[in-house]
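Q: I have 117 residues here and want to know how they pack in 3D. Can you give me a structure?
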Amino acid sequence: MSYQRTTTYYAARRTQNWSRNQNTTRYVSAVKLGPVAHTVLIALMITVLGLIYLTQATRATSYDYEAQRIDNQIAELSDQKQDLEVENARLTALETTKNSSVAREMTTPASSEYVTE
């Protein structure tokens, strides 16, 4: 009698291409999603990413408005400063003229006449 093998054994490493120190357990999910569910999930992910992008863009825009407001305020204060410098120069010139030696030596005229043509 000859002995004949009826069952063939294959090493798991050969059929699965596993190497050392790898987990050889397979987990099979009990939940199966169809193509519609996958499409809905992808649409939700794209929507969430879009909302995140919009919040970041809005935040940058609000900084732009704040910077523009500060620039307008700086321009307005510069205009006020220039106006005050002109006013200061005018008032200083009048005071200097009134207190000058030439102005002190002036006298009021005795009479003033106007020439008519």
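Q: Anything worth noting?
A: DSSP finds three helices and no strands in the chain. The mean pLDDT is 81.
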